[in-house]
Amino acid sequence: MSPFSIFLEGPRFWWAVFIFSALSMVVALFYHYWLLAEPCAICIHIRIYMTGLMIVGLVGANLKLLTAKAAWHWMCAVLSVGLALKSWELFGVERGFIEGSCTINAGLPSWFALESWIPSVFEARGICGFSPEMLLGVTMAEALMVVSIAAAMISILAAVVNSVVLFRDCRRVEA
Description:
The protein is an all-alpha fold. It has one domain: DsbB-like (Bromodomain-like, Up-down Bundle). The chain is about 70% helix and about 0% strand. The chain has 7 helices and no strands. Helix 2 runs antiparallel to helix 3 and helix 4 runs antiparallel to helix 7. The longest helix has about 35 residues. The protein is elongated, with a radius of gyration of 18 Å. The two termini are about 20 Å apart. About 35% of the residues are buried. The mean pLDDT is about 85.
């Protein structure tokens, strides 16, 4: 097996998922509290996906059963694709090719009211259509879109590789 396949199947992949998501949240909170860039509703949805990926990374790093790992890889892929879609929406609203307006609330259901449970992280206070500039004139929406699409592609690849390994191992047991 190639070193990349070994990485995709092992705990280092899951720690990479956790660290990527945690660092993204740290950057978002730095911009929010230090640079006073208030998050919009789409930004809050992105933070929810990042939190989900942090949880998936922590749990995935501790999974031992191959079947559970394969399912967890698909969970990671679904969250990564959701993150990429929300990032694309944020980029589209910022650039004007997706018409969108958002309210000053995240629009979450009452049974999942993160904005009232943890308002310091999940309360939308800004307007959609603007994201702060980061390094080299790249906006947060632009950077997030590129990084999240790459993460989605890697997560899907990891899920496929892990599923193939599971299928291959199941066929060996049957033989």
